[in-house]
Design a protein that fits this description.
Elements lengths: L62 H11 L4 H6 L2 H13 L5 H13 L14
Helix pairs in contact: 1-4
């Protein structure tokens, strides 16, 4: 694998390129598979045909993490806190306490909605990533 920022070869599981200090997929100048130059907006490498890795948006939240938090800890609003919806998270805590735990169904259903894509963005409007 090659760093998309500086074209240096990096291990497959590298999180940081030791040559430039960036995430290997943070750049848009080179193909991660063959190190050929690429256009910043390209979806695939014209040299080798591989799909180009795209950097994650800053602060991106995981759809899987949010969904599982909703299913297992939804009654406490943990998934809503994770997504930045502080007010709704607090409301879910109160509903769960007042209903002696039955409010957890709310969080469970939201967890399923997150995993199926019906809830697909965080409090700042950023899309959830797979």
């Amino acid at each position: 694998m090659y760093c998309r920022n500086c074209r240096q070869e990096v291990p497959e599981q590298a999180v940081i390129c030791v040559a430039c200090g960036c995430s290997p997929i943070a750049g848009t100048m080179y193909c991660q598979h063959c190190a050929a130059e690429t256009e910043p907006s390209a979806e695939v490498c014209l040299n080798c045909g591989v799909k180009l890795a795209k950097p994650l948006p800053e602060g991106a939240k995981s759809k899987l993490a949010a969904g599982l938090l909703g299913i297992f800890l939804g009654g406490w609003g943990i998934h809503r806190f994770y997504l930045g919806y502080i007010g709704i998270g607090i409301a879910q805590i109160f509903v769960t306490l007042i209903t002696v735990g039955f409010g957890a169904i709310w969080g469970f259903i939201e967890g399923i909605l997150i995993l199926t894509g019906s809830i697909n963005q965080d409090a700042k409007g950023r899309p959830l990533v797979d």
